[in-house]
Amino acid sequence: MDLKLDGKTALITGSSKGIGEAIAKGLAREKAVVVVHGRDRAQTERVAEDVIIEGGRAYAVVGDLTIDDDVRRLVAEAQALAGPIDIVINNAGGSGDTEDWTNSRPASWASAYDRNVVAAVRVTTLLLPRMRQAKWGRVVNISSLTGLMPPASRPDYAACKAAMNAMTVSMAKAVAADGLTVNTVSPGTIHSARLDARFREVALEQRLAKDAPWETIEQTVLPMFAQVPVGRVGTVEEIADAVSFLVSPRAGYITGVNLRLDGGMLPTV
C-alpha cells in the first residue's frame, strides 16, 4: 500500500535510538523526509546517516526539550534544513528513577511531567499554526500502556502518559476542522534494548543457557512480567508501521484515538 508520504516532512523527537529511531527509519522508507532529534549529537547524526545510506532523506537536530530556547532553536533549524514540518511525532520522554509510593518525590513528578508532557507541548505549539494555515498536518503522541494500566511503581510516569492521552483528545478536537489529525500510540511490552537485557538477566536466573535463542528466552520470561495474549513482545518496527499509517493521508478520518499496540494485554473493550 502506498501511504502517500512522499514529499511530507516529519520531525520525530527522541529519535536517536529505540522506538523513535525505528519510527524515523519507517517514515523514511515510506519516502517522507525525516528530521531526527536527540540530545547526543553523534548518536543523532548516526541515525540520520543510516537513513541516508538506506536511500532516505534525513537531517539531524540536537536540543533539550525541557529548555524553551533549545526547542525554539531546534524547530527553526529543522525547518531551515528540511522545509515546513507536516508531521510531528512526540516520542521523547521516558521515566527517570524507579519510584513507588514509599519514596515518590514531588520533584520527580515535576521533572517527569516536563520531560514527557510539557516537552511535547513546547514542540507542537510551535508547529501547529503553520499546519493549520496549510490545512494539513499530523501529530502523534507516543504514550504507553502504563497510562491506561498504571502499576504500583513509577506513578509519576503513568500519570504523565495519562496526561498525554487527554492532551491528544483535546488537541484533536481543536484542530480537526483545519485538516489536522492528532492521535496517540500506546506501546505495551516492546522489545527494546533495556527489555532485552532484563529478560536475558532473568533467563540466566532461570538457568537457561547464556546463548539461548531469543524465542526461548521470550517464552520463559515474558509470563513473569506481563500476561500478553499473543504470547510475545512487540517490536519497534510494528510501532513504526502503525505510526506511518496514522500520519498518512490514508488515515485522514482517524483522529483523537489511542491506538494500543499491546498484543491484547489491556483487559477491556
From TrEMBL:
One Pfam family matching this protein: adh_short
One MF annotation (Gene Ontology) recorded for this entry: oxidoreductase activity
Cited SUPFAM superfamilies: NAD(P)-binding Rossmann-fold domains
Biological processes, Gene Ontology terms: monocarboxylic acid metabolic process
InterPro entries tied to this protein: KR_dom (IPR057326), NAD(P)-bd_dom_sf (IPR036291), Sc_DH/Rdtase_CS (IPR020904), SDR (IPR050259), SDR_fam (IPR002347)
UniProt keyword annotation of tRNA-binding present: no
Keyword terms: Oxidoreductase
Gene3D superfamilies attached to this UniProt entry: NAD(P)-binding Rossmann-like Domain (3.40.50.720)
Span of domain Ketoreductase: 8-188
Family of the protein in this entry: Belongs to the short-chain dehydrogenases/reductases (SDR) family.
Protein name: SDR family oxidoreductase
Species per Swiss-Prot/TrEMBL record: Rhizobium tropici
